[in-house]
């Protein structure tokens, strides 16, 4: 039995759904059906009971899952050890915005544990220009909010999710509220991050219009996280940020108020598709295994 067929069988045994299995493994549903039929012909017994409403393991299928799962786990562990030895002191230059690096410690600690000698070096990237460092090779992987829809970049696993806040000057009328709405942005200016990032990406954090269609004024200009905070503290604008900013950026001139109707922020690993490497894949696979953290 080929390794891919084993993976298909074990995934279907977990999902009990042909469509979800195909989506998870990134193959066609026909490929899943063909692999299971091939295994059943070889064994001479049904592995799954199928009806229009449900899929269930047969007794033979349950026993096969127990046997194959043990073998599959041992095989993966052996491959991981071999890959770790092959990677040696692989280095990843990781671009992050603000103070996010500390929050990724569970992912990075697991990566270093799996691949001893590997190294992660942090580089700060700015929200006004999130992709250039990847395209020039200054960074290998950036941690950026979604969506990212760039044809030359690969979107990897989501590593963190969290709410959003509005940074407002201390003493601002919004500062005393328990929460604010995106509609409140129409009555204030937000920082203008400039033309170096795609508008769709900027707008996913700093929309151009409120849900009711009111225009949100932009300006003055800012390029870095700290420039944004300085403008807000000076009373020149308000600005939406990830809720993590309120944890690490205590500022005597700024109040962070929850944005009640903003979608949760989703942060993912992003890298240049042509720069894919075993080390980048190892980091991405480790992050996927750990799963997204709640910020």
Automatic annotation (TrEMBL):
Residues covered by the HTH lysR-type domain: 1-58
UniProt keyword list: DNA-binding, Transcription, Transcription regulation
Domain of life: Bacteria
A Pfam short name: LysR_substrate
Organism from which the protein derives: Streptomyces narbonensis
Protein name: LysR substrate-binding domain-containing protein
SUPFAM superfamilies membership: Periplasmic binding protein-like II, Winged helix' DNA-binding domain
InterPro entries in alphabetical order: LysR_HTH_N, LysR_subst-bd, WH-like_DNA-bd_sf, WH_DNA-bd_sf
Gene3D superfamilies: Periplasmic binding protein-like II (3.40.190.10), Winged helix-like DNA-binding domain superfamily/Winged helix DNA-binding domain (1.10.10.10)
PANTHER family assigned: HCA OPERON TRANSCRIPTIONAL ACTIVATOR HCAR, TRANSCRIPTIONAL DUAL REGULATOR HCAR-RELATED
Family: Belongs to the LysR transcriptional regulatory family.
């Amino acid at each position: 039995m080929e390794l891919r067929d084993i993976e298909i069988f074990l995934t279907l045994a977990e999902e009990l759904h042909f469509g979800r299995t195909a989506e998870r493994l990134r193959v066609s549903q026909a490929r899943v059906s063909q692999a299971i039929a091939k295994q059943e012909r070889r064994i001479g017994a049904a592995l799954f009971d199928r009806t229009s409403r449900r899929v269930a393991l047969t007794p033979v299928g349950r026993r096969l899952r127990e046997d194959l799962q043990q073998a599959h786990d041992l095989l993966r562990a052996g491959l991981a050890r071999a890959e770790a030895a092959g990677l040696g002191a692989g280095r990843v230059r990781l671009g992050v915005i603000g103070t996010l690096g500390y929050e990724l410690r569970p992912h990075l600690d697991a990566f270093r544990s799996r691949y001893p000698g590997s190294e992660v070096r942090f580089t700060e990237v700015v929200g006004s220009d999130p992709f250039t460092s990847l395209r020039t090779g200054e960074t290998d992987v950036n941690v950026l909010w979604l969506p990212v829809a760039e044809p030359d970049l690969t979107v990897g696993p989501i590593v963190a999710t969290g709410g959003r806040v509005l940074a407002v000057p201390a003493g601002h009328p919004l500062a005393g509220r328990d929460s604010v709405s995106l509609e409140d942005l129409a009555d204030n200016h937000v920082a203008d991050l400039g033309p170096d990032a795609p508008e769709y990406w900027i707008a996913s954090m700093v929309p151009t219009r409120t849900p009711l269609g009111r225009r949100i004024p932009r300006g003055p200009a800012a390029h870095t996280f700290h420039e944004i905070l300085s403008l807000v503290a000076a009373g020149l604008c308000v600005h939406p940020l990830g809720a993590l900013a309120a944890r690490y950026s205590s500022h005597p001139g700024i109040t962070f108020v929850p944005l009640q109707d903003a979608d949760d922020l989703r942060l993912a690993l992003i890298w240049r598709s042509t720069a894919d490497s075993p080390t980048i894949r190892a980091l991405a696979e480790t992050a996927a295994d750990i799963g997204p953290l709640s910020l």
